[in-house]
Specification:
Number of helices: 9
Largest sheet: 5 strands, parallel
Order of helices and strands: EHEHHHEHEHHHEH
Bound molecules: adenosine monophosphate
Strand content: 5-15%
Strand order of the largest sheet: 2-3-1-4-5
């Protein structure tokens, strides 16, 4: 089972991926978490990614495709994966297709969490204030930049997947439990 969660920053992808992991035992692959781990470890890649993430831009397709290709090779990924934050561009989506088809695998569904940008900004700033430990990329200016990058670079993957009949768009503004229920309803029909 290969499931892709798509949505702008703060749409609840991480929360929903975590729930699916707890319930079905799928592995959550968050490229944002992987990059943050590289930054924490102080690797060369981490140092490069740090500045890019802080500016609200995307890390290059080559780096991200290489990262996810390695991760999909790990034994735990064989059970099923939820991709959270990848692909984020059409070239990444095309590279993923190539990777999977060479292994005889395919994407089961792409779930889009649709949200209103202004509500998102409020939601994320609230998260930052509540944790008191704001992610460096959660300040308002960067957030608006990331939303713009989402619209320009990531949103084009939605028609890409719609054309393949894989796209399921859900209301990401609903209560978290309602969103989870909708996702489960999509999975039940696969
Ligand atoms: P996230 O935690 O998914 O919001 O990711 C945090 C940041 O990491 C993003 O704003 C990007 O700068 C970078 N990033 C994560 N995933 C990708 C990806 N698939 N392609 C390019 N950049 C990414």
């Amino acid at each position: 089972m290969i499931l892709i969660l798509v949505g702008p920053p703060g749409a609840g992808k991480g929360t929903q991926a975590q729930r699916l992991m707890d319930k079905y035992g799928y592995v959550q692959l968050s490229t944002g978490d992987m990059l943050r781990a590289e930054i924490k470890a102080g690797t060369e890649l981490g140092q490069k990614a740090d500045a890019i993430i802080k500016a609200g831009n995307l890390v290059s397709d080559d780096i991200m495709v290489g990262m996810i290709a390695n991760r999909l090779e790990q034994p735990d990924a064989a059970q099923g994966v939820i991709l959270d934050g990848f692909p984020r561009t059409v070239p990444q989506a095309a590279a993923l297709d190539g990777m999977l088809s060479s292994k005889g695998k395919s994407i089961a569904a792409v779930i889009e969490l649709k949200v209103d940008a202004e509500v998102l900004v409020a939601r994320i700033l609230k998260r930052a204030a509540e944790t008191g430990n704001a992610r460096a990329d959660d300040n308002e200016e960067t957030l608006r930049k990331r939303l713009g990058v989402y619209e320009q670079q990531t949103a084009p993957i939605l028609p890409y997947y719609a054309d393949k009949g894989l796209l399921h768009s859900l209301d990401g503004m609903a209560e978290m439990d309602a969103v989870s229920a909708e996702i489960e309803a999509v999975l039940a029909k696969l």
